[in-house]
Amino acid sequence: MIGKTDLDVSGLCLGTNVFGWTADAEQSFALLDAYVEAGGNFLDSADSYMARAEGNSGGESETIIGDWMAARGNRDEIVVATKVGQLPGRTGLSASTITAAVEDSLRRLRTDRIDLYYAHVDDADVPQEEYLTAFDGLVRAGKVRALGASNFGPERLLSALEISGREGLARFEAVQPHYNLVERDYESEQAFFVEKEGLSCFPYFGLAKGFLTGKYRAGDDGPVDTGASEGPMRMARAEGAKAYLDERGVRVLGVLDEVAAVHDVPVASVALAWLGAQPTVVAPIASARTLDQLAQILPSATLLLTPDELAALTEASS
């Protein structure tokens, strides 16, 4: 479930930031069909996906999702999360921005409600009362079912929850932090009070920019194969993944390899299963641009690691 709502989601959230970028509409439909066929029901998008890609202006991911749901007639079976605040030309969390952005997202998604609506990033230039009141209005109007905070610092998240409680406003029910097996600041900075407040955690970069797929290995100094649609953003992600190849990273990969071999599953699924087993985490977010990549992450939704395996992975990444 998402927070204290009745929104029931699958154990793996499919990130759709690649839709309309490295996965065209046809590829994206195939990925969505395969994900749902495997039991998934939870999609993560944003109005800014993928505005930074050449030829795009933003909203491409939402449009593909909306077209797919309309074509399949399955809107009521899908939990859709999207975000506001990072679309070029419409950044921040002013009430006017939120009010306009939600209408555009609803139109692109071809739906009358968004299941989980995130503030993409905090906005220190707007009083929290202003954007929380605007979000509350969307919930009361039935345009949004639940609210989430992405990339919020602990103090600002706490103050938002305090304001919502004091003013009787709809509160954030979910958080979306940067968290994975090799990026664990969330555990010391937010996990305690996220659990205390009954919020749900949906971590992004669950595979550490691809590092935790096992694709990048020590001693591999050759060019990074990022596929036919090579681009600066993908090259940057690949270089970011390779940055984890220090002594600790090699140690983590070693344990991932051992556990994956025992369960006969891909390394990526083990990394996501570890993340999904952590306190407060309901479902990690991971994306795929091909069916083969999707197959690497799907087993994570049902993979149960033993306490010893979880402990070995935690120790390796400490």
From TrEMBL:
<protein>
    <submittedName>
        <fullName>Aryl-alcohol dehydrogenase-like predicted oxidoreductase</fullName>
    </submittedName>
</protein>
<dbReference type="InterPro" id="IPR050523">
    <property type="entry name" value="AKR_Detox_Biosynth"/>
</dbReference>
<dbReference type="InterPro" id="IPR023210">
    <property type="entry name" value="NADP_OxRdtase_dom"/>
</dbReference>
<dbReference type="Pfam" id="PF00248">
    <property type="entry name" value="Aldo_ket_red"/>
</dbReference>
<feature type="domain" description="NADP-dependent oxidoreductase">
    <location>
        <begin position="12"/>
        <end position="316"/>
    </location>
</feature>
<dbReference type="InterPro" id="IPR036812">
    <property type="entry name" value="NAD(P)_OxRdtase_dom_sf"/>
</dbReference>
<dbReference type="GO" id="GO:0005829">
    <property type="term" value="C:cytosol"/>
</dbReference>
